[in-house]
Amino acid sequence: MSLYDAYENSHTTFEDIVFIGGSDYIIEFPVYSSGGTPYDLTSCSATWFLSPYGQSNITIAEIPCTTVGNYSFKVTIPRSTTLFLSGAYTHQLEVVFSDGKTTRVAQGTILIREAIPSYYYG
Fold it and tell me: 3-113 has which CATH code?
């Protein structure tokens, strides 16, 4: 199922992501129409959300996405967001489509590994 299909039906699931806390991390979300062609995101916007796994009522991060080549959204998670995090988290992508419809199109799991402390963190 493409992210655009989620607009029409229900959400889809992202592949699991693993990275070390305190790292800048970029996630790209290509959007395709149901026919498999890239969906033009020129008049669309997206926001990325992060919460502790199983606690969707708590928002740890809410970051606006940028568009990449009019066919993908990209979120850049700054190191400061995950510096002191470790464990399992849920992330979701909310898209505002060109017709104004707002949908949480997908979610997935992120495992953040604890960073080894250094004098340079902080």
Answer: 2.60.40.10
